[in-house]
Amino acid sequence: MESITQLDSDKVIETIKVLEKRINDRFPTSGLRNVCNDFLQLAQQSKGNIEWIARPNIIMRAFSYFIILIGLGGLAYSITYIDLQIHDTTLSNIATISEAVFNDLLLLGASIFFLGSMESRAKRKRAIKRLNELRVIAHVIDMHQLTKDPSLINKGDNNTENSPKRTLTPLELERYLDYSSEMAALVSKVAALYAQSLSDPVVVSTVNDIEVLCTGLSRKIWQKIMILNEKIKT
């Protein structure tokens, strides 16, 4: 039975595919359709990355444990050559020996921590790389809706030589903005799949940043849709 408390990557990708088809039906030659197609490819790549992140990396774990065992074995073997009978019990001599033992234990602990966290660091690196690509997609979506200004509806032709071409009807403009908002929301959902598979603080923080970015973008787009609806009514 499928869990209803987790996002399903296949269903998220299917939703993106449907959105790409909807955009293609109305705006087949638009830049927004190309952005959605690139986003779909990134989401499909992300699925493979997320599956890799969710699986335990047996080879990397075995390598880490093997090196740790060698280190512990070497430490245990070297202890057998230490004369544990302290003949000079002066404070300075005891402090010197204690410092040497402490430094060795500290170095061993740092090595164990480094090797033990190697798998999670590798997964974090891959997740952050893909999350940054999703962040870029969100900004690209924002760029495509920047010139879609509903306040200029019914204002007549007051364009200058460098004004953007506004050829969309009110209905087309509304659908264009709606598609942009949906795509921004889906960007945050693909990002959330990474946090769902890897509860790393850096990954979770990056996902939250993308969520805030996409929510702000959707809010800005829906403000335009509301203005457009008011213009249509008048």
Write the CATH fold name of the largest domain: Glutathione S-transferase Yfyf (Class Pi), Chain A, domain 2
Number of strands: 0
Low-confidence stretches: none
User: Regarding CATH, which class of the largest domain?
Assistant: Mainly Alpha
What would the principal axes of the Cα set say about the shape? Answer: elongated
Overall number of domains: 2
The total count of helices amounts to 7
The share of residues in helices is over 70%
Strand content: under 5%
- Tell me which oligomeric state these chains represent: single chain
**Given the helix and strand composition, which structural class is it?**
mainly alpha
Alpha-carbon Rg, integer = 28 Å
Main sheet properties: none
| First-last Cα distance | 51 Å
Reported CATH architecture of the largest domain: Up-down Bundle
Name the average pLDDT.
81
Give the helices and strands as they follow along the chain: HHHHHHH
